[in-house]
Design a protein that fits this description.
The protein is an alpha+beta fold and 299 residues long. The protein has a 5-stranded mixed β-sheet with strand order 1-4-5-3-2, with helices on both faces. Strands 6-7 form a two-stranded antiparallel ribbon.
Length: 299
């Protein structure tokens, strides 16, 4: 397996007619069997990264891998894009593909993904020579247009953490919707209503940053917990509503009067209540004596 296949895709413009023409900013790696007649240099950012021993590689291994990456891409000087804190800028897609994008905070994950997409788009539009090595954005520091594009991105990140607020907001909304559907089991047709309710209460779209009053918002839309405390939710504004399964479980022995009533409500999604069950059983010749054992014989 070659370097590109093992550690990421290479994005290169200006060599052998490989320019940005796909519109999706995804390019096949360029493999050059002929090595340069010289050894590529490591930019200070690459040297600084290699100097810190990583748990998976020693400094000399990192230098060898970075040099090999530069040779593969025919770059004279390989550099790492750096964040304001001096750490290398990492690509969200690469880590997602390799199982390393498990950031619990929606806000952090959305910012990471949004910035990664913007970086890739800006560098491609500028015709920059860059790659993703071990999940880190690297670039050709000997290429003028690349240096200008990277400098602009790093300056922008130094002044403001988001490179594209519109995309960031969309990713946060999508992730919050998925969390409501998967984690909170919110009915699909009420997801937008819950998001609106969160906004009206001044809540962020990240449940890890603050608690979401989802139950209160759902209650405003008639979604409450099943009175049998089974953990399910039902849509009802009546007292003591039950989910269909819990209501059916309250049927009397040897009688299906409750089952018939519950099945009549299933198509519409209406939730039966404890009062509904009591009325049905009281009016049933079989269940009457179980519900009111001291009432005597029905006239």
């Amino acid at each position: 397996m070659n370097t590109d296949e093992a550690f990421g895709h290479a994005f290169t413009a200006g060599h052998d007619g490989n320019h940005c023409t796909c519109g999706e900013h995804r390019f096949a790696a360029i493999h050059n069997p002929e090595r340069y007649p010289f050894t590529p240099e490591l930019h200070d950012s690459a040297e600084d990264y290699a100097d810190v021993r990583r748990h998976w590689a020693s400094p000399w291994q990192l230098r060898a891998e970075l040099t090999s990456e530069a040779e593969q891409l025919r770059w004279r000087t390989i550099a790492l894009m750096t964040a304001p804190d001096g750490e290398p800028v990492e690509d969200y897609d690469w880590h997602a593909q390799h199982g390393g994008a498990n950031e619990p905070h929606i806000c952090h994950r959305a910012l990471w993904q949004s910035n990664s997409e913007t970086i890739e788009r800006v560098l491609c539009d500028a015709g920059a020579n860059f790659s993703v090595w071990r999940g880190i954005f690297t670039y050709d520091a000997s290429h003028g247009p690349t240096l200008e594009a990277v400098a602009a991105l790093e300056t922008s990140l130094a002044h403001y953490p988001s490179l594209d607020d519109a995309r960031l907001c969309q990713l946060e909304q999508d992730a919050a919707c998925a969390e409501l559907l998967r984690g909170w089991k919110v009915p699909e047709d009420l997801v937008q209503a819950v998001l609106t309710g969160l906004g009206e209460r001044g809540c962020s779209l990240c449940p890890e940053c603050e608690s979401w009053p989802v139950d209160d918002i759902l209650a405003e839309h008639g979604v409450v917990d099943c009175a049998a405390e089974c953990g399910g939710q039902v849509r009802s504004r009546e007292s003591a509503p039950l989910c269909h399964d819990c209501a059916e479980a309250e049927a009397g022995p040897g009688c299906d009067c409750v089952t018939v009533m519950v099945n009549s409500k299933r198509p519409s999604g209406a939730a039966p209540t404890r009062a509904d069950i009591f009325i049905v059983r009281v009016n049933c010749n079989i269940c009457y004596t179980y519900v009111l054992p001291h009432a005597g014989i029905r006239a």
